[in-house]
Each structure stands twice: as structure tokens, then as C-alpha cells.
Amino acid sequence: xxxxxxxxxxxPEQTPTESLxxxxxxxxxxxxxxxxxxxxxxxxxxxxxxxxxGLVGPSGSGKTSLLMLLAGLERPSGGTLRVAGADLAAxxxxxxxxxxxxxxxxxxxxxxxxxxxxxxxxxAMPLEFAGRRDAFDRAEASxxxxxxxxxxxxxxxxxxxxxxxxxxxxxxxxAEPALLLADEPTGNLxxxxxxxxxxxxFGLRERLGTTLVLVTHDEALAARCGRVVRMEDGLLxxxxx
Amino acid sequence: MSARAGAGFGGWPLAFRLxxxxxxxxxxxxxxxxxxxxxxxxxxxxxxxxxxAIDAGLRADGARLLGGDVELRAGSQPVPDAVRGFINARxxxxxxxxxxxxxxxxxxxERLLVEVKAVDAAYPLLGAVVLDPAVPLRDGExxxxxxxxxxxxxxxxxxLRLGEAHPRLVALLxxxxxxxATPAFxxxxxxxxxxxxxxxxxxxxxxxxxxxxxxxxxxxGDAAAFVAALRQAFPDExxxxxxASTAEPGFSRFMDSTASFLVLAGLTxxxxxxxxxxxxxxxxxxxxxxTIATMRCLGAPSGLVLAMYLVQLxxxxxxxxxAGLVAGYGLTWLAAQFLAGSLPVPPRLxxxxxxxxxxxxxxxxxxxxxxxxxxxxAARIPGAALFRDAIAPEGARPGWGVLAxxxxxxxxxxxxxxATAGDPRFAAGFCxxxxxxxxxxxxxxxxxxxxxxxxxHRLRGAWRLGLANLHRPGAxxxxxxxxxGIGLTTLTAIAQIEGNLxxxxxxxxxxxxxxxxFVDIQQDQLARFDALVATLPGxxxxxxxxxxxxxxxxxxGVPVAQVRxxxxxxxALAGDRGLTYSATPPEGARIVTGAWWAPDYRGAPLVSxxxxxxxxxxxxxxxxxxxxxxxxxxxxxxxNTRAVNWRGMGMNFALVASxxxxxxxxxxxIATVRGDPAQDATVLRSVTDAFPNVTGxxxxxxxxxxxxxxxxxxxxxxxxxxxxxxxxVLVLGGAVAAGQRRRVRDAVVxxxxxATRGQISAAWAVEFGLVGxxxxxxxxxxxxxxxxxxxxxxxxxxxxxxxxxxxxxxxGCLALALGFGRIGTALALRARPAGELRGE
Lengths: 241, 840
Ligand SMILES: Nc1ncnc2c1ncn2[C@@H]1O[C@H](COP(=O)(O)OP(=O)(O)O)[C@@H](O)[C@H]1O
Ligand SMILES: [Mg+2]
What we know:
Chain A is of the alpha/beta class. Chain A has helices at residues 63-70, 93-103, 119-129, 135-145, 161-173, 191-208, 219-223; strands at 21-32, 35-47, 52-56, 78-83, 86-87, 104-107, 179-183, 211-215, 227-232, 235-237. Chain B folds into four domains: 1-61 and 265-422, no CATH class; 67-246, no CATH class; 433-512 and 700-840, no CATH class; 539-675, no CATH class.
């Protein structure tokens, strides 16, 4: 057996000078019934390991699209993109899936827990995909870290929105990914609950040394990141590294 | 586990674990898949099991059914003395049986065509005859089947007339152990001693009778070895021998073809079930799309997603298949009760692994062939879908591996159908027809949607709304049409085939068909016979020909045992054939090759042969046919071949000899009498009273016997095909239910816009009515085409469209579609606008 069982540490052989994310002239367009839509039109972005980046901008400007490219869920139409030492444009579907479960954690606005699985099973899933034997032990530890050690066997339908998002947070961080992507993670939560989730998110990030890209409407939230960039009509402006 | 598999897939154990978790959430949406599979598997399992059970019954009871270890069928000639001597030297016991057809006349003068079985004191060698009351049957006495007593109003002690004899009825024949070996096909049974039969005067040269000799071997005797020794000792006798392990050939041929029809009807149910599987699985996976996308985001490879859902599907299919096997076994039991009277042996019901495994394999292959496509599509749902509103993978195509697997499953399914069929060519034709029918309904749906799209904007009101519903993207028009249509196509085809056959045997009787055949008229009775019928009322035409019995012993000097005849012509080489002679060609005969002999021809014996038999035997003009007539071999040279119209209901002989050879041989005559059917009773009574040895067979009665058999087969087929319709109705119900959410939303919006319930209902009536009418029309057309093909190519006979059947198909389809639409509409209209709008 091979890479599946050996536990890949995040950021294995990166020198501090090498960026965790390096995008050059990155473009992304999709063909739709109304013709080709150019969503990203030449994005340049560098993010250093351990950095926290806030991504703001009006709705429809392309923030989510950029996040998907970073996660290897979509393929760039042009330009180059390296994430955690991998050239995403050159990888096939299954290599991208492996890349995701080893290097990337994602938190969604709508939580996206699997309704037929318990909190523990949801969190263990990425480790199970990676063939890890200690998947459930680590998932339990991860759920304790977000304060849900007492809700392990509950199904998403039995949890409040805030609790669901905390489960999602535990799931995104359980494999100790090099990169954490969050797309408006508090968008579906009230202010107080959202605040709690964000405290957890930043706490985990600091403890694990994870790089964070956080998409948000909330300027105050963005300000908690070390650096903020603004997306406007498929282009980044302001604070570009 | 290899590194590659591990990387691309994650391994089966993980897939199993995930599948189990998913299944915890319940399988409500897959219930239709389960039931569809179960119905199809049940149909096939039932047919296969019944078939095997009947075979097992025949085998287990073989010796008793045959009435001995070995049976020698001698035909119209007694068993030659040399053969009898050989057998007597080796057998433990033997028994002689003679069977012939005759009229049994009641004291009232009523008469009935019966089959007389004359037996000796050794009968039965195995088993027991049950007489009621249990009296010994002496000479001058008969026992009759209860049916005869009922029809003729007989009571015990009555003096009956059989030929020239007047036996007394002493008992009812309740059970006959060897009935399967000698089924009383043309009439119910009369049991008598040989002496009683001799007294009737019915045994004359040329009489249509069947002598057979049953043999019981000494303990430990080997029937096969006995048969082989007998054949070796008498190679030229053309002995027809059967052992207990060889089933009744005629019956098994009949069973084979009935069973293969039934299997195909079951397969049709499975085909519709497959469509239900495909749609059910698609709906199920659409509901799982979010889960699948989430897993893909978390790093699950598409192979793992595929494996996980494949495991679930297979688990459910297994449940459906097992349910189907159990239900199928139950159906077998029901069918056995239903058929009890018409089977020669009680079927030995047991869960035979062979047919059950075959049915399960059919079910599994169907599930794979129909579910792999939606599974493959679902596995390709990208993780990115989670970030978008619309998750459905529009136009996604499964991976090549999945496509290949699906094609392999479909090919295996077709291969299995063809390989296990009694008639592979017919099975292949069936598969082609099934695919063509599917294509027809898809095309029809596409056409309907196209037309609806073109004309809807030119219409107003309900018509406009209804038509718009038909061609809206994602409309289940095609699904509804296919699911309804296939079942009705099958039923229509069966009804058309049965109707056409029935017409042929009943309504379509040729105008000039005779009312009666009179057989066994002796040479010295001819003049009196002609004089009598000339005076009878209503008689319009009488024809008469000499009738001899002949056995073909050699073709071109080669003994028939060594002749390799084409299938479909070998039957005529075995046993007795009718033979006549004539100076002129039979009326209506068409000479195919050669020429008829001169009317005054008196040269070396010539023969005219049926053209299709000549082809099957590979003989032609100038070749020599050796015929054994009354124990003597005679050589005939083929002068010509004739096309014989066997359906003309006239007197047809495969062999017609030239005059001058056979006149001197003792023989009888057959006459046909045509006339006013109202006088039938008088004619029959007058002729058979004047000539007690003559048997009259009413053509219409004989045809009704055939028709009755036909209708039993048709009932079995219709019952099996009904399962197809049941599957179709399930799929239809599923399609309507799937569209229900949209229907509710539409209803609410329309209500908000001010539409009345009546207007909304009318729009949906238009939608469902058009779908029903179109698929009904297509089903009628496809059913006609299928029945035409079966009649034309399998049965080689004419076909006429039966408009009543077509109209019933159309109306049935319309009623089903409107019925389901009506239920859906009623439920949708109940939704309250306020609640639905708030929930949005
Ligand atoms: N598959 C698609 N087809 C057509 N347009 C799309 C597709 N995906 C995204 N878009 C469009 O691209 C733009 C950017 O979308 P998105 O990345 O979701 O923006 P944001 O997250 O900033 O709101 C939007 O205008 C959206 O409508
Ligand atoms: Mg967005």
C-alpha cells in the first residue's frame, strides 16, 4: 500500500518563499445557452502558506467561481494555477479528488452535510476516502474541537444551523488540510451564531497553521483576515499581492 | 488492492460501508424499481417452474403413463408375428391396446364421436383403472368417461350401439393410468375389451386405427438396451418404439412452443419493468444529487460513487428478485390448480433451482442493463454542482466503462433470451421487435411533442395549456407512452393472433368446406352409400375417394431410418400415411413439378407427392418411393409434385398413386358431404344408422376442439401479458407521481392567475388524453404488426386486422391515461395556494 495510508502532512516540502496559491492570468468561462460567459478574466493571485485572505465583492462577480478553481472542482480556461505544489490544470479527475481530500477543506454557506449520515460519519468521510484506519477516532476529536463531542450520533436534521455548520467545519479540517476554503460560511446563520462559528474557524486555522481563503459579504469579518482582496466583474482589485 | 484501484476507487469495503449508511435512510423512492423487477421475475420464474414441474411429473410417472416400460406403436397393422415372438421371449408381460375413433349411439339415438380403447386382460400393466362402480369389464360391456354419459344422457345398464355391436354400459371410467400416452384428443374415451371391439365390425382394411403393444421388462431390465436389440433384429420394420423416459413427443412439442411463448410474454413484462427500473433509479439518484456532489467535494472519486450506488441498487434488486421468485412460485401453484384438468399429469411442484436461477439472472441483467446508464450519469455529477442551483447534470454521459458494462448487460440479456429459447430465430425476432417497438414509442412521443410545440401557441384555453404541458422540457411524455404502450401492444398482439386463428378454424371456414367426413366406407357399401346420400335433405355435394394406409419404408432405395429429412417434414416419414389413387388430379391441386399421368394410364406404379414434403425429403421426379401397404412393399416412381392446400378442409392426401395398382387391395373409402348445416343431425343419423361401421365426423365439432385448446393457450398468454400491463401501470403511476410537485405548483400559480378548477382539469385532460390516444394508436399498430409477423412467418397463414381489438386497445389506453391523469389532477387541485406560495 502506498500514499493512501501514509499520512500526508500539510505543506511537506515547501520553502517559506514558495506560495501556497499561485495564479497567473487565470481565466474561467463557461458555455451556456446564451453564449460563452467569461466569469474570470485574468486573475493574478499569490497566497503564502499560513496566510488568511478575505475575498469580498458584489454578488455575481466570480468569487465562488474562483474558489471552485482553487478546490480543483472546475478547470481553468486559461492561465496557470498552482495550489500546494500541484499544477491543477494538468491533473485528471481522480487526481483532483485525491488532491482535495489531502490538501483542501471546504465550508459552504448551505453546510451540505449528508442527511443520511450522522455527524460523526459526515466528519469521518474524507479520511475514509483516504483509506485512513483511524478515521472515526480523529473525526471524534475534530467534533470535540468544535464543541460537539456530545452530538456524535445525531443526524443533520436533528442539529441547528449553527451546529450543522460546526460539523461542516470539523469535516473541512479533520484531514488537517493545507488550504481551507470558506464560501460565505455565515450567510445562513444569525449574527451571534455566525460569530461563534467564525471564532471556531479562526481558532482552528491558527492551531493547524492552515491557509484560509474566506469569501464574505461582511467587511468586518473580512477584516479579521490578514489581507483582503476585492473581486469585481471577474477581476481582482486592491491589495493584490 | 492495487495502488491504481485504491487511488481511483477507494475499494469495495468502503463502498459497502457507505452504501449501508445510505440505505438506512430508507428506500421509498426505489419501491417501484423493486416491484417492477419482482413482477417480471415472477412471470419468468412461474413459466419456467411450471414447465419443469410438468416435465418432472412426466418423467417420474413415465412408466405408468406409458403403460409399460416400452411401447411399440404398430399403426393400422397388427404387430408382425416375428416381432411379437422376439418380444415375448424377452418380456415379463405384454399387453395389446387398440384405439380407434367411432360414433357411440345412445338409446335415444343421440350420437357422439368417441375414442374407443380396446384392451386385453393384462391391461393395465402398471397402475389401476378406476371404474365406478368397481366391476370387471367383460366382453359385450363398455365403460365411458362421465362426460359421455352426461352428453348422451346415459345411465348404467343402457344398451348402446358401437358400429354393429350393442354393448351395455356397466361403469363410468373415472381414471385411466396411461391417459398421457394415449390422450383422447378427438373425443372422450370408451373402454372395452378386444372382443367387444371385434364385434363392432369397425376393424376393416384401411380403418384409421392404432395398434400398440406395451411391454413390461423383467426386474432389472434395461428398456434402452431392449429397444436397441429390437431395432437391430428388425431394421426394416420401421418400428416406432418409446420408452418411459421419452416423453410423449406431440405433447412436449406443444408444451415447448406454449412455454416459449409464455417466456417471451414474461420477458415483455421484464422489459417494461426495466423501463420502470431506469426511471425509478433516475428519480432516486436525482434526489441524491446533492449528497453525491458533497462527496465529490470531499474527495470521493467518481468510481467510488458509482460503486456505492451500484451496491445499493444490487442489494435492492436482490430483494426484488427474491420477492419475484417467491411470487413466481406462488403463481406456479395457482396455475397448476387452474390447469389441473388440461395436463396429462399433475405437475410435481418444487422450487427447481434451474428455472429460478434463470429468472434471477434475467432480473439481474435487466436491472444492470437499465440502471447502469442513470448510475453512470450520477457518478459524473461534479462537486462544483454544489455551488450552483441546478444540480441535474444536463446532458451528462456516463463514462465509457459504464457504457461498455451496460452494453454488455444488454447483449447478455439478448443472448440469454436467444440461447434459452426453443426457437432461437423466433426469439431473436422477438428481441428485434421489442427494440423496434421501444423505438416506435419514443419516436411517437417525439412526434407528439414536436406537434404540440408547433401548434400550442395557435390554440387557446385548455388546449393551449395541455399541449404546452406535453412539450415542456422534462415532460414525461415519452415515459408515459412507452410504459402504457408496451403492455397494451403485447395484449393486442395476443388478442389479434388468437382472433385470427379462431377465425380460421371457425368463421373463416372455406365456403365450400364440407360439413362431414364419413370414414371407413367399405367397397361393397359404396353403391348403397351414394344412393342414400342422394336422397338426404340439404345435401349439395358428395365427394368420395379410396383410402388406404401406407407406411413409407424407403426413399430412393434408402431405408427411412437413414433418411435425413428437413425439420417440418420428418413427421410424415413416421407411422402410417393416408394414400389414395386417382386417374385425375385432385380438384384444386396445383402441379409444381412434373405432369399428371394420362387418365387411362395403366403402366408401372407412379405417385404424386406433396411438394413441400418432396423438398424436405430431397426427392424429385423419377425418384422411387417404397410404400408398405398391408404388409407388402411396393415401389412407386414420383411422377409429379403438388402444392396441397391443407387448410381447404377437403380431402388431402400427401400421396396419390396412379390407378391400376391398388384397386385390388382391400381398402375403404372416405366421403365428404357438403350441404345445409341445419340438416346436419339428420344426415349424420341417417348415414350412420344405415352403415353402423361408418364414422361421421362433423368438421365444425373437430374445429371447435382445436379452438378450445387454442383458447386455453390464449388464456395463459393473456394472464402472463397482464403482468406486462401491471408493470406498465406501475411505471405510469410513478411517472405521474414524479410530475406531481410541478403539477401542484402549476395548479397554484394558475389558481392565483384566476383559472377555475374546471379550466385546469380540462388542460390536464387534454394532456393525458392526447398521450393516451397516441400511445393507444401506436399500440394498436405495433400489436397488429407483431401479430401479422407471427401469423405470416411462424404459422404461415393469412392475417386480417380485427378492428374490434384495435378499438379496444385505443380505448383501454385512453382510459388508463385519463384515469391516472384524473387522480393526479384531483390531488394537485387540493393543494392550497397560500401554503404552497409561502413554502417557496
Ligand atoms: N454554469 C454557469 N453557466 C452560466 N453562468 C454561470 C455559471 N456559473 C456561474 N455563472 C455566472 O458567473 C457569474 C459569477 O458567479 P459566482 O462565481 O457564483 O459569483 P459570486 O460567487 O461572486 O456571486 C455569475 O454571473 C453567474 O451567473
Ligand atoms: Mg457565490
